């Protein structure tokens, strides 16, 4: 069964106002949008849009994945964290 996501990022775990703003800038307005783009691609798009900033992998990338899994970013399994870092080359 496919997971049904809410229509809004507001109230999603790990998604505060700043992350929501960055996601909106890249065309992500819901968890469904994020799932379709993937957290890895969303993180990379945010980094490309703001090359002058440093976006922490643990806070941004893990937070995006955690939002989809409804887990705090620090609760992601180590294996998944490792896979995410590999996908973005960090």
From TrEMBL:
Ranges where the TfoX C-terminal domain occurs: 6-87
Domain of life: Bacteria
Transmembrane domains' residue ranges: none
Alphabetical list of InterPro entries matching this protein: TfoX-like, TfoX_C
Any coiled-coil regions, as ranges: none
Protein name: TfoX/Sxy family DNA transformation protein
């Amino acid at each position: 069964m496919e997971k049904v996501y809410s229509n809004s990022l507001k109230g999603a775990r790990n998604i505060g106002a700043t992350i929501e703003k960055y996601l909106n800038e890249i065309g992500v307005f819901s968890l469904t949008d994020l799932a379709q783009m993937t957290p890895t691609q969303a993180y990379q798009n945010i980094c490309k849009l703001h090359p002058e900033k440093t976006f922490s992998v643990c806070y941004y990338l893990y937070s995006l994945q955690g939002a989809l899994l409804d887990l705090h970013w620090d609760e992601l399994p180590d294996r998944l964290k490792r896979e995410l870092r590999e996908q973005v080359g960090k």
